[in-house]
Amino acid sequence: MAKAEEPRPLSGHPNRKVRTIAGSQIVFDGEGFLRNPEDWSEEMARLLAAESGLKEWGEIHWQVIRFMRAYYFQHGRAPMNRDLKAGVKMTLMDLEALFPGGIRGGARRVAGLPNPKTCAG
Amino acid sequence: MREPIIYLDNAATTFPKPRAVLEQMLEIYSRMGVSPGRGSYDLAVEAEGLVQETRRKVAALFRAPDADHVIFAQNATDALNLALQGIVRPGDHVLSTRLEHNSVLRPLYHLRQRGWIEYDLVPFDGEGFVDPDAIALGIKSNTRLVVVCHASNVLGTVQTIPEIGRICAERGVPLIIDAAQSAGVIPIDMEGWEVAGVAFTGHKSLLGPTGIGGLALDPKLEIASTRFGGTGVDSKSLVHTQTFPHRLEAGTVNLLGIIGLSAGIDFLLAEGIEAVHTHEMRLLDRLYEGLSQIDRVQVFGQLGDPSRHVGLLTLNIKEISPEDAGMILDADFNIAARTGLHCAPLVHERFGTYPHGAVRFSLGPFNTLGEIDRTLEAMAMIAR
Q: Of the four, A13, B124, B262, B265, which is 20 to 30 A from A69 by CA?
């Protein structure tokens, strides 16, 4: 498991936090989503999942994360709902239960995808 | 083949549109899709005639005093911007409510940031109603305008505009209502209610396309132009035309949208506004009752008198974010619902659902009881 410091405020950016993970400075938004998906690593995914309360990390979690990241980098956006369901080969109800925090706050965040900004804000 | 979608986002825009609306848009625009009122050839005159006829239909629908004071805009937000920016002057006070959509909150905030106005927002009760007496108490000596949403896009509650209109009229302050969610399902009586302006959109319960809306005004209301340009009238002058409706319209109007709006109103009147509302409230009642039986579902607000409600409700499922619930409804059950803050953040603050919001189901004339039952089955599975 990667070593990580607690998040601390990022100077000049009130809605961002920075933490050092495995020796690298990584910037997160206020909800714990990576600012830059390129900063993601498998070690970081395990760390974020463990911090969110995931007890057992298995191959099924990797399959979800790999699909979400591959889709994101191929299409430039997170998978649409039906693409996500087909890609992870399970219902979104099951995906919701697979990660603490559910789909958005769990799977998507652990996969290092950006925080969705559609009118939740 | 995929099951047809259960579309429960009619408060965002009604879908599908009546076939007759789409057919008329295609047929009429194919035949006379020219610039209305800008030429002397017959087609341009005919197109202008259709635009004027649609103004008359809108005026009749809202019982507005004068069809020439029906102004076309892009949507309710655009119409509210026209009203707010055209009416207020530096030093004015505006009174509105905490139920408002950002279509009111943001222009008000912008005007305050520019140093032009001050404003106050009247709170609403736990069921989503504004006390008219609070409006009376909130009016100041420099209050130029009161703006109230007729029906909340988050809670569905319909405000007592006749009473608020009387209060405003007694104090000589014009009342503008945001009818985005009410026009087409709740009868509006501008003259009877002493309302100075109705901001509406064409693409919701008026069953027209997106991109068309407007503002029906009392001719006594003082309002200045806030956009300037070609009107097809007085072209030799550099001063923007001051007669109505051109005072508030600049550039070629959205003829295709106006054709659709006109056809939508025709369809609606043939069906009957009350019949549409009764249908939607019957579905909403079933939905509300069914959701109330599901332990982990919390519905915000209450259904009381159906005449004081439009066909929408908002809810959350315990321990599932609204955004995730919307994704699950879509992908697993083919149900389209709106999640988030619904551009009305102060309502969500009141119900403790800020910043992630809630799930909104909003009904339209083409929804069925069968769809409501399938939605309830889906919700029971998600929340089990």
A: A13
A3 pLDDT tier (thresholds 50, 70, 90)? low
Instruction: For residue A119, indicate whether it is catalytic.
Output: yes
Q: Tens digits of per-residue pLDDT, B55-67?
A: 999 999 999 999 9
Is B251's pLDDT higher than 60? yes
Interface residue A121 vs chain B (CB under 8 A): yes
Chain B residues within an 8 Å CB radius of A82: 330-331
Domain boundaries of chain B, sorted by first residue? 6-17+272-383, 19-270
For A120, the closest of B332, B356, B382 (CB atoms) is B356
Model ipTM over 0.95: no
Chain A residue with Cα closest to B378: A93
State whether B321 and A105 contact (CB < 8 Å). Answer: yes
Q: Which residue pairs from B2-6 have beta carbons closer than 8 angstroms and sit at least 24 positions apart in sequence?
A: B2/B334, B3/B334, B4/B334, B5/B334, B5/B335, B5/B336, B6/B333, B6/B334, B6/B335, B6/B336, B6/B367, B6/B371, B6/B374, B6/B375
User: For an interface test with A, which of B106, B320, B323, B379 has the most A Cβ atoms less than 10 Å from its Cβ?
Assistant: B323
Please determine whether the domains at B6-17+272-383 and B19-270 fall in the same fold group of CATH: no
Contact A102 B320 (CB under 8 A): yes
- At the topology level, CATH places domain B19-270 in Aspartate Aminotransferase; domain 2 (3.40.640)
